[in-house]
Amino acid sequence: MRKEEFMDGLKNALTGEVSQRVLMENLNYYEDYIIIEIRKGRKEEEVLEELGNPRLIAKTIIDMHSESNGVARSCYEEYEQEDLEREAKRNMVFITGWKAKFIFAVVVIGIICLFGIVLSFLLPLLSILIGTALVLAIVRRMMN
After folding, report:
1. 136 and 84, same structural domain?
2. Per-residue DSSP letters for 28-94?
3. pLDDT 10s digit of each residue in the chain, 144 long?
4. Residue 102 sits in the same domain as residue 82
5. Is 42 left (phi over 0), alpha (psi -120 to 50) or beta?
6. Which domain holds residue 120?
């Protein structure tokens, strides 16, 4: 089966059974899912075989939406969230050992250097402010 056949089968089975919004949400979801899986390097046939018969998928969608629209949305969103979490975990990079220590050291040194640069600009201003405050204090004492 090809993607177009799968999508047509799903569309035909859902048309008239669920709202237009539900129809489009599911068509978009399965279209995106198939595209993402193919981009990961899987074959179209393999992805479609894993999904199974589009009429069975449609029946599940129809049953969920006829029982309780809120429960159906909850199940759909749960599945979508789990898929996003799996994708996020797959894309994480863990740095351990000497590389992690090196990166940590570079970050700490960078922060210290940045702090030093800021202080080098602020200390002259601070000394001017302190000097001005002392002069004003002396002038006030002399005036009193």
Report:
1. no
2. HHHHHHHHHHHHTT--HHHHHHHH--HHHHHHHHHHHHHH-HHHHHHHHHHHHHHHHHHHHHHT---
3. 799 999 999 999 999 988 899 999 999 999 999 999 999 999 999 999 999 999 999 999 998 887 655 555 556 667 677 777 777 777 667 778 888 889 999 999 999 999 999 989 888 888 899 999 999 999 999 997
4. no
5. beta
6. 93-144
Q: Give the Å distances, CA to CA, from 25 to 19, 20, 76, 138.
A: 10, 9, 10, 78
pTM for this structure? Answer: 0.47
The verdict on 12 and 81 lying in the same domain is yes
Are 101 and 84 found together in one domain?
Answer: no
